[in-house]
Amino acid sequence: MTAPLRIGIAGLGTVGAGVLRILQAQGDLIAARAGRPIEAVAVSARDRAKDRGVPLDAHAWEADPVALARRPDIDVFVEVMGGHEGAAKAATEAALAAGHDVVTANKAMLAHHGQALALAAEEAGRVLRFEAAVAGGIPVIKALTEGLAGNRMTRVMGVMNGTCNYILTRMEEAGLPYAEVFEEARQLGYLEADPRLDVDGIDAGHKLSLLAAIAFGTQVAFDHVELEGIGSVTIEDIRRAADMGFKIKLLGVAQMTGRGLEQRMRPCLVPATSPLGQLQGGTNMVVLEGDSVGQVVLRGAGAGAGPTASAVLSDLIDIARGNRVPTFGQPAATLARARPAKGAVPAPHYLRLRLVDKPGALAKVARVLGDSGISIDRMRQYGHEEGSAPVLIVTHKTTRAALDEALAALPETGVVEGAPVAIRIEAV
Amino acid sequence: MTAPLRIGIAGLGTVGAGVLRILQAQGDLIAARAGRPIEAVAVSARDRAKDRGVPLDAHAWEADPVALARRPDIDVFVEVMGGHEGAAKAATEAALAAGHDVVTANKAMLAHHGQALALAAEEAGRVLRFEAAVAGGIPVIKALTEGLAGNRMTRVMGVMNGTCNYILTRMEEAGLPYAEVFEEARQLGYLEADPRLDVDGIDAGHKLSLLAAIAFGTQVAFDHVELEGIGSVTIEDIRRAADMGFKIKLLGVAQMTGRGLEQRMRPCLVPATSPLGQLQGGTNMVVLEGDSVGQVVLRGAGAGAGPTASAVLSDLIDIARGNRVPTFGQPAATLARARPAKGAVPAPHYLRLRLVDKPGALAKVARVLGDSGISIDRMRQYGHEEGSAPVLIVTHKTTRAALDEALAALPETGVVEGAPVAIRIEAV
């Protein structure tokens, strides 16, 4: 058994305390696997007195995370403070400059500064690992960076914000509108302090941008992730989609196309019987598609002390074992600058509109769609309610541009009431 | 870019040819990720003249795999010949003795000789990796050995023989009996040359024993895997189970209990709505459960040239990157000898029997079950057909011993026709 791997943990919230708890409870098991003990030498957090359910006496205390990051008696700096600017970034940079490896759970920091930090790590001859930043306990960074490294990846997808999936599932099950379930989730403590990070898809978008960088060998480009949150998803669409055999998910999709890199995080319809469609509640799912392997699906807890700490431990054990993989799977200097694709690859779409009760109304709608080159796969008209009837249309593959053209032309028909809803159907 | 990683491939069947094809097609991508090119220096197979759809001119030819394994100009010996004795084992041993790392897809060899080979590898200071041996393209060895290394694993489960899952799925969908679907599968080329490897659960049992060794830090103990194949699964049970909300799967389960290590590979009922229950056709699924991470589910292609070659490449890229993990996640000498548990942990069971048309018949059955301490969760009696009625019972948790006691006593009631069927229901 060689010398212990000495770590300093900045941030003793759920994740940091979880890591300490595991190290204390299963130190022997981890040492047997890692080939050496992993020892938390020092810790840092805002409030020293707070009871975290785990004793801190054995660890040196640093009030300042940057001071912790610079301590000469640590090998690895574990950044689990959160926040993409300020202390987390400063401490990460300080740790790398001091010659320490870094393990972080900070998707926001990496989504904004991943390329610069990866370069800094490599210049310092250090590794920067982040399994805990994406999909909690699911070892998806490892699966993609190492397990599928022999593949040219064709697409990565995921439901990676458990809160959003909880809200959508709960809306469907309880038949409650978005605003009500949002409030419920807030009271249950499921939402970030700034809930827009969850419901606007920002947090999930951060994660998608990290997966895309690894999958396609491109520099992280969170700014180019097309973001749309779940705030506009209605209970009516959830129900109508179910009628047609679909579920609505906040789905992230990244794929490399001839027109550039597509990164989308937005509500999509997926077949109800697909693994993504069957995903209920707060669970996460990531789908990785490669030219040789086909489709690999990973499912597990996307958040929580245990799962996230499990991911941090995986990175630490890697480092203890001497496994040193570049941050995004290849040297940061070799990552290409991704050209963002304009518009998404064609896909079927779900259309919902209200048709007024006039002869030939449906024909007019069909004609507008046809004029934009959109053909109809399935259509369903429901009974009239107060002079208009809900109509659901599943189109064949179409571009969003063609669809937007049709949507713009529909009011001119005089037979459509209100604004139609259009949602992409992702083939999964 | 440092010196290439030089490999020798023994076996040019589906997998070996698949590896060559990927190296030829995406050499640059792999070199970028691995930090160095991976170069197939020499190959070996039975028939040099056979057309494998991939050019062999650039590789030296060895008629004898052992000679290939000993070549001083290779770094890694890739064993994809198959067969657990004879040439595969001799060549693997020769490669380790010659100071080469080994990558193998050979579950049978590792199930029988894993401990000895892991020891030999470590004595030689070499690694022996086998991602391709379990669940094809799903990076499950990596997920378990590295991704979840911070967890005390509590249970691992899997549907890991695609052919068996295909047969069971097809029986249900087409309403065909086992023998007929077995014959279909044979004609489609889905079965091993010796089909017992598939349908008797041997192949899947090999895989389970490897997962168990990693999960619980024990020496591979394939001999202690409780094996039961799918040959006795009837279309009637598939349908009746579906009526009660279950699917029948050839499910492997390994778990460490106070009474020792349980390893079972046998037909089980799982809830139809669970990820395992929803698994159709030839796809594989592995469920990993750890104390911190909870449940992680992995799904993908369990066989085929592309997926299996993808797994071999993952091991090769690991070696090229300098990632060197012990075969079963910790030094082989530290693996404990597993004490096999006698009997499985209690579980609910599905019982199907035929009740003769006599007053009080059901009460007599209930009494026999009650006398063995078995309580009934759900019961369903169908209409009488020719003097007897099918009865389905879902029990509460019971041991198999109690159940066997009840099954032995049932004939004495005089109200049960023929032999009852009892199948374990695994909580997933």
From TrEMBL, chains A, B:
GO terms for molecular function: homoserine dehydrogenase activity. Pathway: Amino-acid biosynthesis; L-methionine biosynthesis via de novo pathway; L-homoserine from L-aspartate: step 3/3; Amino-acid biosynthesis; L-threonine biosynthesis; L-threonine from L-aspartate: step 3/5. It comes from the Bacteria. Keywords: Amino-acid biosynthesis, Methionine biosynthesis, Oxidoreductase, Threonine biosynthesis. The keyword Ubl conjugation does not apply. It holds the Pfam family NAD_binding_3. Its EC number is 1.1.1.3. Residues 350-424 form the ACT domain. Transmembrane segments: none annotated. The keyword Amino-acid biosynthesis applies. Belongs to the homoserine dehydrogenase family. This is Homoserine dehydrogenase.
